[in-house]
Specification:
The longest helix has 24 residues. 42% of the residues lie in helices and 5% in strands. It has seven helices and four strands; from the N terminus they run αβαααββαβαα. By secondary structure, it is mainly α. It is globular and about 50 Å long. It has one domain.
């Protein structure tokens, strides 16, 4: 597992380097700053690898902080169970069709992330999911393919970022690497290579990764 996590950190560092370079190149166009949490709203799915890494950071927080966050997580879980009564540990979404996930991720949801501190900063910033690192700027592969054409409305108010070559990065290769690492991760954790297992940030923090039998029973 340590080897997989080491590779995962390297991949996340590549993404962070792209974002930092973009901010350095276009400081007048990118409003993202420490303490801005405008994007840290709503519920969205993350991979089980993201969840595992996030939990590693979360478990390092002071106990009092963890308890406050977990109380919020349980509240969110109770709301989810109003729609999916059977949603239970290990809180994986994949037993239902992906189209049904939208019921737990309404577009109008502006609920702040459970991991936001009072100062608007992420409590586990260095362990945050890949989606959080990619958000705010469109994803344009070095080959020219636009892999995600949305961006924060506070960014690029003066230009079309889809036309800016300096934002490009090898996203196709990095996302392929993500899939390969996920398969390595599930092999190490579950003894079986999987292509996809997903959860949410609030439920990720409630997962007992030490109780792998729960996962193994679920994926049989």
């Amino acid at each position: 597992m340590e080897e997989v996590l080491a590779k995962w950190r390297i991949l996340l560092d590549k993404i962070d380097a792209w974002f930092a370079r973009s901010m350095e190149l276009y400081p007048e166009s990118i409003a993202c700053r420490s303490g801005c949490s405008a994007c840290c709203r709503s519920t969205f799915d993350i991979t089980l690898l993201d969840a595992y890494y996030l939990k590693l950071g979360f478990d390092q927080l002071p106990e009092a902080t963890r308890e406050r966050v977990l109380a919020k997580c349980r509240e969110r879980l109770d709301l989810m169970r109003e729609t999916w009564p059977e949603f239970d540990h290990p809180y994986l979404l994949n037993y239902r069709d992906e189209e049904e996930w939208d019921a737990l991720m309404p577009d109008e949801d502006e609920t702040p992330c459970v991991l936001l501190g009072e100062d608007g900063r992420c409590l586990v910033y260095h362990y945050r999911p890949m989606t959080c690192r990619l958000h705010g700027i469109p994803l344009i592969d070095t080959g020219g393919e636009v892999m995600h054409d949305e961006w924060c409305t506070m960014n690029f108010t003066d230009a079309d970022p889809l036309q800016i070559d300096g934002l490009k990065a090898p996203f196709d290769a990095m996302l392929r690497e993500e899939v390969a690492l996920f398969r390595e991760f599930t092999a190490a954790l579950l003894g079986k290579r999987m292509n996809e297992l997903d959860t949410f940030i609030p439920t990720a923090l409630l997962i007992d990764f030490e109780n792998c039998d729960t996962f193994k029973d679920w994926i049989k």
